[in-house]
Amino acid sequence: MKKLFFPLLIAFFVLSALAHYLHWNTVAQFVISAVTIVFVAGFLGKATEAVAHYAGQRLGGFLNATFGNAAELIIAIFLVKEGLFDMVKASLTGSIIGNLLLVLGASALAGGLKFKEQKFNIHLAGQNASLMLLGVIALFIPAVFVKSEHLSQGDTMTLSVTVAAVLIIAYIGWLVYSMVTHKSLLEDHADTQADHGETAAWSKGQSILFLVIATVMVAFVSEWLVGTLHTFTDQYGMSELFVGAFIVAIVGNAAEHSAAVMLALKNKIGAAVEIAVGSSLQIALFVAPVLIFVSLMFGNPMNILFTTVEIAAIGVAVLIATSISRDGATTWYEGKLLLLVYIVLGVAFFFV
Amino acid sequence: MKKLFFPLLIAFFVLSALAHYLHWNTVAQFVISAVTIVFVAGFLGKATEAVAHYAGQRLGGFLNATFGNAAELIIAIFLVKEGLFDMVKASLTGSIIGNLLLVLGASALAGGLKFKEQKFNIHLAGQNASLMLLGVIALFIPAVFVKSEHLSQGDTMTLSVTVAAVLIIAYIGWLVYSMVTHKSLLEDHADTQADHGETAAWSKGQSILFLVIATVMVAFVSEWLVGTLHTFTDQYGMSELFVGAFIVAIVGNAAEHSAAVMLALKNKIGAAVEIAVGSSLQIALFVAPVLIFVSLMFGNPMNILFTTVEIAAIGVAVLIATSISRDGATTWYEGKLLLLVYIVLGVAFFFV
Amino acid sequence: MKKLFFPLLIAFFVLSALAHYLHWNTVAQFVISAVTIVFVAGFLGKATEAVAHYAGQRLGGFLNATFGNAAELIIAIFLVKEGLFDMVKASLTGSIIGNLLLVLGASALAGGLKFKEQKFNIHLAGQNASLMLLGVIALFIPAVFVKSEHLSQGDTMTLSVTVAAVLIIAYIGWLVYSMVTHKSLLEDHADTQADHGETAAWSKGQSILFLVIATVMVAFVSEWLVGTLHTFTDQYGMSELFVGAFIVAIVGNAAEHSAAVMLALKNKIGAAVEIAVGSSLQIALFVAPVLIFVSLMFGNPMNILFTTVEIAAIGVAVLIATSISRDGATTWYEGKLLLLVYIVLGVAFFFV
Q: Which segments cross the bilayer (chains A, B, C) (predicted)?
């Protein structure tokens, strides 16, 4: 499997380029580029890890964190550019609930079927809960104020920018806190960097080069993928919300999904939690606010108002995930509960 | 008192049969059948315990759980059959908040006045919190999606059935988890089966016979009781919501009420919590979804949409109960807090 | 600084009396009386501590608690008398969120920059969380019932009075619990009385006399201050909500702010938490319900219905504060998170 990775990566990349530029059938285009994005996301992940290996753990953790969600961020930027704000927000929502419910749930279930109870750093669990809560608050407060008090568009945008700035400040603070001042308190965090395997074989220069190449590849495939999404809404009558929240989110997070489950099966649930929850946090505290500023640069401002059902879905996912992870341990049943909530949300979104 | 139990049980059963078939005054009918249901619920409880004694702890726990709420389930089935959906949902709501606030509150207060601090299994507390949260989510998500996105009746029903199926899967998983795979982790659970007393004197055959008889008696008395409830709404102008949520719920849970307080006074707060919270969980994760399927069989489908005030009441009860029980200990003041929240809800429901 | 306290107190008191009776410019009046209220609130705090010193810890704690929020209560009574119900509720809201976010956040941040992790009694943290939750429930339930079920004005008032009575009962129970029956369990509580310093030099008679004088001074300055608030709404177009929730609340809590930060810097985070959270609890469980009864006495009844944004703000503040303090420890980053949520709320209120 490992040997075949690069040949497959290149084959699929070429295939999806052909599909896109030769205007193949859009369903075929979607399938090919969806498979390709899984490979390029995996490549990006490996390249980030390799650079992290040379950059040292601190800077490495930061790179790992910022490039880890690069696929989502790049897809989202293309969506913002095309003005598909509803789908952007839906895909951010889907990414958060997908990580907290699907990735964390599948990891806890898979790991829990093998091990009776899997423990991880309880301090980290508590901090993660507070941070996720901040993310929910940042979405909830503007929505409730705008809805109840009928703020003007200008005020809504100013409020959005302020909240976005606050989230980015919180995120930077969290990096300083978790990687500098209180690193030892949250030790499980380090596990994520373990087990590089083949990537360690790359030289420093190679690693950086691969990182750049991977990012460019992700950018291209993302654009091709986004171009096909209207098929689902136009041809199959699915809502933008469902496509964004489930299809885009599952494809965009494929790399995290498999990595987290593998780690859980090796009894490294701490690292799996870090990927799932850490990724959600990054979407909420970094990707979402960055997109607000990006939209301003495009001259077509996107506000931070999510719909009631999106906020409800995120709120519910955060509540159940923090309730389950607060004790610093997971079992198969807790994993199952998370997956069940994901199913409930999936069905509900499908009918919207 | 114990000696008089069976004579009183039979006397009241006969009396309420007379009241029903001779069409006595409906207030008299209500009072008599309400008292009778307390006795037959108590009988059902004893019979279940006796069968559990022979069936072994695992199967026993399951029987205890499924027959424990039989009275509520049977009352609710009659209400569903008569199409009184609002009253069904109100009585489910009342049952959940009654168990979490009144039963748990009275137990913690009574026990706490005798003992400074009463401790119970902290793992169980955490698991219960997550499960209750699932119940709240399962009620909240359909309500918010249907309300915000104006789902069609057909979609609402499909969503209801899916959510109901998810809840039953979660409940079955919980039985497997708490009675098979992680039994030892949640040890307090076993306490509920302690202290059978007289019931141990029954033979295996007797126990099963009594279980069948008790269930049939509960079914009859429940139907007679339900037939009188319109008096409160028609004659005294009370809302279906108040009758269902407070009168039906208090009568239907009388057996649990007294049992839990008695256990708390013997410093077995773990068993009392298990009755109160376990009963709520069963209503939310088993009784409610089963009723959806029962209504489909009757050809008159009931959806899972609860009103805003019902969801608010359940949400609030779950929040305060889990906040108080999360540390695996209760005191008199925590019991008092739960009772105060129950009073607030009672007054609010009365004015609806 | 300490030497100058009394001369400055008297100078500012006289100055604000002149400003008020000679009808100076209202902005000048506001600034002078705002500064004066900080001094008189500080004086009231010292006098309360001194009386507490002679009355013993139990009664002392009670006095400390009831006089600690005297400034807010007196300001609020004047607002109620003038029928400015919206501003009263806004200032109560502001007081709660100001204490939970600004005071607690600043303390945790300041203390956390000096000490890596600051610990306090974990039992107290849990109890505080449950009590704050009761406060939120007491505001949330009437609002949701009245809004969803369109209660009549009479029923709304009856519901308000019941809820107010329940809150006062809960508060009295809490005093008994935390100062009599379970005092030792919540030991950090005692720290608040530490470090009297100069006040210990006052005799018993002097202390009582100063307490009376301080209360009278607070009453006068509060009335003068309230008289100037319309300037902000009339002249600068700020909403009553913003003036009440941020300007009145910050001025009225100035004494607590500085005291809590000082204690955190001495590594007494337990006492700082006690001031911040205890003060919020008192506003929610004592000051707010007392005002309902006060308004009845004035013959102009105020109900307990807070606006959606106020309840959202309080709910959010309670959620993040309890999530952060539940583990019985604080760090600089947790303090920063609280301050960031305060900023988000401040901006949102400003635009209303």
A: 29-47, 59-80, 92-113, 125-145, 157-177, 208-229, 241-265, 277-298, 304-321, 333-351
